[in-house]
Amino acid sequence: MNSSIKRQAVLLANLGSPDDCSEPAVRRYLDQFLMDPSVIQLPWLVRRLIVSLLVLPKRPANSAAAYQKIWTEQGSPLVVYSQQLLESLQQKIEQPAFLAMRYGNPSIESQIVEISKNKNINEIVFVPLYPHYADSTVTTAIDEARRVIALHQFDLKLTVQPVFYNNPEYIHALVESCAPYLFERLSTDQNNKIKDIPHVLFSYHGLPEQHLSKLDPTNRHCLKSPHCCQAESIAHKTCYRHQVLETTRLFVEQTGLEPSQYSIGFQSRLGRAKWLEPSTQDKLVELAQRGIKDLVVICPAFVTDCLETLEEIAIRGEQTFLQAGGRSFRLIPCLNNHPDWVKTLAGWLASSSQK
């Protein structure tokens, strides 16, 4: 085995989940999550008042009820599917691989401490499992990893896998994972052919518009014009909206979907700030009222199925669509541990080990 591989460890990072689906566990999780200044970008005292007075009195009970609808015998779907990804990946790479959650368990700190016990390792390849850049996902995970290394004075180099929203291998894996729901195979020597498929809704996790404006290095591009995401700019490097639109464009380009066959929405709103539009909730109603009867939903902002996909979309989203006049509704699973996604991750990590 190459000596450089012996000295590398891989750490996958996902968002996180409560330890169980009880109300106290959900309250602890929400408190940790929402008190992160990267999530609610307000001064500490204002954030503390909002979380303690407006969120924690009622939301834990509602969230716990939602988690109870999707909880598995093995635990939280997000953690279970992430662990399955880790196990599949470990079979294809030589570096020891670990899994951490930004909020909840296993924590980033506990996993970096575990990695540090192996004195042969001097580098962590850190893989935030988010295709698109946002402070509330990517930045906070990286900051936490750096904080832990500095706090414990570990002699560990941190190498971060960049966001992959337009990476060809990622797009290919995403298309392949969706293919059974969108295509029929004509024969072994012919290309995929679009079926007479239902309308496709790309539902991305939403963000407050303020999060985008804050990251705009030019201070004059993001959300300043209706077509800012199509106009070339250095702001696109950290612009979540541009990146999700680019993922959609590349997916559509590979699959041959026509403009009339798909729509885009943003889900999971919280609070009164202005969020990215249109909302998935509104889009579900609009599509049904427009006469769209059959709908499939893709959630490319998530690589792992979780509360936001399995409960918010597959349960509440379906109810919204059907009650508005729709006939059939189906959620396409996230990448989870799809073979093409595992292969893609393994390829990136093999390249990292050779640098």
Question: What is the rounded distance between the termini?
Answer: 15 Å
Q: What is the string of SSEs from the N terminus onward?
A: HEHHHHEHEHEHEEEHHEHEHHEH
| Distinct helical segment count | 14
CATH architecture designation of the largest domain: 3-Layer(aba) Sandwich
* Top CATH class of the largest domain: Alpha Beta
Q: Based on the structure, what is the oligomeric state of the protein chains?
A: single chain
Low-confidence stretches: 1-5, 185-190
Structural class: alpha/beta
CATH topology of the largest domain: Rossmann fold
The mean pLDDT is 93
- How is the main sheet built? 4 strands, parallel
Number of strands: 10
Order of the strands making up the biggest sheet = 2-1-3-4
Shape: globular
Question: What is the strand content?
Answer: 15-25%
* Number of discrete domains: 2
- Rg on CA atoms, Å: 21 Å
State the helical fraction: 40-55%
Would you kindly provide a written description of the structure presented here, covering whatever features stand out?
The chain is built from 14 helices and 10 strands. By secondary structure, the chain is α/β, with parallel strands linked by helices. It has a 4-stranded parallel β-sheet with strand order 2-1-3-4, with helices on both faces. A 4-stranded parallel β-sheet has the order 8-7-9-10. It has a two-stranded antiparallel ribbon with strand order 5-6. Helix 7 (135-152) links the parallel strand 3 (123-128) and strand 4 (157-160). Helix 11 (280-289) packs parallel to helix 13. It is globular.
